[in-house]
Design a protein that fits this description.
By secondary structure, the chain is mostly beta strands. The protein is built from 2 helices and 11 strands. The strands form 2 sheets. The chain has a 9-stranded mixed sheet with strand order 2-6-3-5-4-7-1-8-9. Strands 10-11 form a two-stranded antiparallel sheet.
Length: 130
């Protein structure tokens, strides 16, 4: 059996741009991508704290340190600059891999600069530990 698990997330990022006239994707500061273990072209889910909209697309790197979070193409209708979002990266894991999974959580400030990073180790009794 495989399980669909969270492998990383960028928590409470601020959308800096929304570009309708673009093929698609989300452009994310490459420093944030690395910290959350998200590869370029990896599928991510973006959730808006403003209106609970969820969108799945692929991640593209922006220059490191820019704080850029830009929704490109159709999601530009759903997300606006200033919106607070959670960017979630997921993976499929075999049962034997789940116990060794260590999801990375990246916390950012209002300029999308990293304030804290956590690794969440699984515990055998079903609870998690930061």
């Amino acid at each position: 059996m495989q399980r669909h698990m969270c492998k990383g997330k960028i928590h409470r990022a601020t959308v800096t741009q929304a570009e309708l006239d673009y093929v698609g994707s989300i452009t994310i500061d490459s420093l944030l991508l690395k910290a959350a273990d998200i590869k370029p072209y990896e599928i991510v889910q973006i959730t808006s704290l403003r209106n609970a909209t969820r969108w799945k697309t692929y991640a593209l790197p922006a220059p490191e340190g820019t704080g850029k979070i830009c929704l490109n193409g159709p999601p530009a209708h759903l997300f606006s600059p200033g919106d607070i979002v959670i960017i979630l990266s997921m993976g499929m894991y075999d049962e034997s891999e789940v116990d060794n999974l260590v999801p990375k959580v990246v916390f950012v400030d209002e300029k999308n600069q990293i304030t804290k990073m956590e690794e969440h180790h699984l515990i055998t009794n079903g609870e998690t530990s930061p």
